[in-house]
């Protein structure tokens, strides 16, 4: 075995140790934040369309919302991510809606395992029961790569990408997205870089 191979093996071991440590940090963070998120959940119940506005204000979803997404977000009353204590990469996402004319479901859920290196795995998902012939109509062109990313359709499909934004970006920083402060900070950072 060459010296280069030995060093490569040592780095591989360090990467595995780092991944395990990061997983433990993530599990601890989720454990500590859960009561905070529960308090927030109670507070935002009194703010009309809090979650719909938070998702709309995310730059990615603002650019890719379908007509049905935009309408459905008006009926979104609760959005919650529940992490598995035994496996911090696994979580259950639940969106609760008022009665609406888009779909029959009151609740949409999706359980996923998110792996930064491999993307992730869908464990379970809701079947979205549309009223009549409702279909997703996007702002983006049909050929556009963004077509597959929908905040609502994500609950019923086999993709992970849109969920990563909902789970890792919007859910923990919901207030910043609701107020639009997150976008302002990004714009200020871009101006400073120029």
TrEMBL record:
Gene3D superfamilies: Nucleosome assembly protein (3.30.1120.90). Belongs to the nucleosome assembly protein (NAP) family. The lineage of its organism: Eukaryota, Fungi, Fungi incertae sedis, Mucoromycota, Mucoromycotina. GO terms for biological process: nucleosome assembly. It comes from the Eukaryota. GO terms for cellular component: nucleus. This is Template-activating factor I. PANTHER family: TESTIS-SPECIFIC Y-ENCODED PROTEIN.
């Amino acid at each position: 075995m060459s010296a280069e191979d030995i060093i490569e093996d040592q780095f591989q071991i360090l990467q595995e140790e780092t991944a395990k440590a990061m997983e433990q940090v993530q599990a601890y963070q989720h454990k500590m934040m859960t009561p905070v998120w529960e308090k927030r959940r109670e507070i935002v119940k009194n703010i009309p369309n809090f979650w719909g506005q938070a998702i709309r204000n995310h730059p990615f979803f603002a650019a890719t919302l379908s007509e049905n997404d935009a309408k459905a977000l008006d009926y979104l009353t609760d959005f919650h991510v529940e992490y598995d204590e035994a496996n911090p990469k696994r979580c259950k996402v639940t969106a609760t809606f008022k009665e609406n004319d888009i779909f029959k479901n009151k609740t949409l859920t999706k359980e996923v395992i998110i792996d930064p290196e491999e993307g992730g795995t869908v464990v379970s998902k809701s079947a979205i029961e549309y009223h009549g012939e409702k279909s997703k109509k996007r702002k983006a062109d049909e050929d556009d790569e963004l077509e597959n990313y929908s905040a609502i359709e994500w609950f019923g499909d086999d993709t992970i990408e849109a969920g990563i934004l909902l789970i890792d970006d919007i859910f923990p920083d919901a207030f910043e997205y609701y107020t639009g402060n997150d976008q302002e900070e990004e714009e200020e950072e871009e101006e400073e870089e120029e």
